[in-house]
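user: can you give me the structure for this one chain? tokens are fine.
assistant: on it. calling the predictor now.
[tool input]
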Amino acid sequence: MSKYLNMVTRQFDLLDANTRDLFAASMRWMEDHWDESANLLWNTDDAKLTTPHHAIRESVWYAFGLLMRARPGDKARAARVIDTVLDYQFDAPGRVFHGTFLRAPEEPYPPADAVIWRDYDPNWREFIITVFALVLLEYAEPLPGALRQKMDGAIRQAVAGALARGLSASYTNIALMYAFMVCFAGQRFDEPTWLAEGERMAREVDRLFKQHNAFAEYNSPTYYGDDLYALAVWRSYPAVSPLLAQLGTELEARLWRDVAQFYHADLRNLAGPYDRSYGMDMCRYLAILGIWMRLVLDKTRAPLPDTDHPFEHEDDIAFVPLVAFLGANVPPDVLGHFVAFRAERQVERVLADTPRRVATAWLGKDRMIGGEFTSRTPPQSNQFHPATIHWRVEADRIGWVRALYLEPLDARASKNRLEMATTSEIAFLVHAPGASIEQIERDAWLLPGLSVRVETNAVEMRVHPRADSFEIRYTVAEKRPIECMLQCEEESL
């Protein structure tokens, strides 16, 4: 192991029981999706490509797990994976995608007028290169010298492309990874301007956080997990940058404390609103925040799906080796919030001043409600869920409601109450196991475990059944304002 790692050695044989169990589940999943002929994992979740394809980023995570496990043959396979991934980096100086990687070898090379997200993903630079940095810091010795040289060349290309991008510090999870990637490259290649740029980004992310004790990408069960990864890398390598190590330690603890305020241990979920989320129940889809929490909680308490059965967003289980290696630094005062629900509470966080954004949440014994006031600004992605309700249906099952994005919407949560305002139409997706469409009326929803009274100026209400949920839509005359209030009754039905 390298002299750089400032904590207990995280080899597989030294992991604690929780971490070992999760690591083993992750490696089993990846080995089930391994393609020996391609030296890559098969991809199961990415909808951008409709034909079967491989996963380049997740394969790098697998390579790190192999190096960490170090069974016979693991190091050789990891070297093959890394060498294969290097072949899929774009060497295209002057193009917007220079230095990033194909998402899958089956996708086409980006055209000259490439469109971000459609034709390429710039974030693969930071995701892949931060793992390369960890490999070179901790597991360089078993890798062939020629491979290490190729990795160095890839890091240089990625940094060149990332510098040209002009990344904003408000793009939190990528900005955090960018800061370490550039600092690491600056130190490794004796490029002081790169080191200075990485530390500049770190200071800016820290400054933005301290304005309101919140990241701009707020309350995301997946991207908070990415944030914690980057911050753990920052605090683990003071030899790369003492500044990043200091800020990483501070920000990591403050982020965990904010998570604790929104987390309901008995419902095993983070209350909304979610600036970015891939699902509504962390026990049914895999969120990277849940991976971090599994390191300090056993299976019965952690907000993770049962990995022995099908679950949603499953490719992110490949992220486990990185989390297991770095370890979770959860402050002692936070851990109790993850073990048992402490007390009913109202939470409010100002997220931005111009335009003003405010997140509110109320958490009670058997339910929680979230809302975000947005000043009617459009969201940055379709992962934005500004109005949410979770409640207990049965001992081990929850129901949930989320507003569907139709128009910019303002929402506020308070005790048993969710108030919303937008233009012309409000729609909800309601997941309530055992619910009947006949019990959903304009002014009242009778759901298993929950009774909801509805007040609205809507002139029409329609209900459409979906596979495992209902869509409830309220409308007024075209382009006129609409308001809607959901009142959860004190006594569940």
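assistant: here you go. The domain at 12-339 is CATH 1.50.10.10 (Glycosyltransferase). The chain has two domains: 12-339, 345-488.
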